[in-house]
Write a structure and sequence with these properties.
alpha/beta; three-stranded parallel beta sheet; globular; 124 residues; single chain
Amino acid sequence: MAELLEKIMSSDGWEVRVARNGFDAGFMAGSCVPDLVLLDIMLPGLDGREACKLMRSDPRLSGSRILAVTALKDDRSIEEIMNAGADGHLAKPFAISDLRARIAALMSEPAATAAPRDPKSVGN
């Protein structure tokens, strides 16, 4: 999945860095301050929810958008993801056009904070 997303994002003109686990994702985001983070929730080690909380606790990342990419579709899981600070979520499997549309929408909005939000306001 990471390789496919890397190829898509690179072809769309994004500078891409790939982390293979939640700890590396949080560390990498803090060192490069990205505009956008595509964050898989089911990561080895530190999972995506905890990585998201870690990123949201770093003031340098306050403007970064976080899109959670997940196979989890139940309301409780989505609420946890959004409460961790994600700006939105995209359920797997997804169409590339849906990914691009979600990214465009997120980039036109202010970034989230770690404050709890209504998980249905961003949708899937």
